Input
Amino acid sequence: MSENIFDFHIEGDHLSPSTMSYFELAPFLQAFCEAVEAEGRKRGIQVNLGENSVNLVHIDEGSLLLKYIGRSEQMMGLLASIVSAFTFSYTGTPAQKTIDFVKSTADLSKRNGYTVSCFSPYISQHPIKLADKDYQPPKYEIQTFKESTWIYGSLVSIGGKTTPTAHIVSIDGRNITCKLNKDLAQKMALQLYGTVLHIIGEASYEYNDNWILNDFIIHDFSVMKSTGIVQAVQSIKPYLVEKYNSIDDIDSHFRNMRD
Output
């Protein structure tokens, strides 16, 4: 028996070829394929879903068997990680698509009274139950961090009865909702639809396959003044001196940049 075999077994009293529709099974299969792809990206493993597909092997009264054949030991390790996301012993944070697959499996089980299990000799010599009608997905540890930083952008709305919020469109096009105190909100309101602001505050991030800005608390701001090109170049000149002084052939450097 190949260790690269991975089976899904779905059981239920009301499961049969006539009751298990494509619309019931498709979200589960799609969520699984997306989880495999996401965990692959997370680990730097290229996943070709055309070569790594799930096949329906058998369906009868009360049971359904799906088979997935991994192409490498790396792929089987990836599948083992997805399986571990169903347990409360998982350390760290799974890829968001893996969390979505866990929820999709839980929904399928709860909605129909099914028990979903998997089997792979690579992972265990015994079937592993993933979910049944009473299964509750784990609450995963969310990775976060905070930093003092700044935003350059324009104020497009501001308000709030108890906790004021300011809606900023950054110069790179992001829409950012920020919190601030009432005194600062009154001052900032004067800049509504005005020029670009330099906004200083504390940013909070959450990790969801990549770091995403979750919250921003404004501590202060200033209005950016418009300057001509000469003044702009003069203002950044001190920061460039050290860099360009270390270049032996400045003409060749700029010629290469143009090319």
Summary: Helices lie at 22-43, 73-84, 96-112, 182-189, 229-245, 250-258. Residues 5-131 form a domain with the Alpha-Beta Plaits fold (CATH 3.30.70).
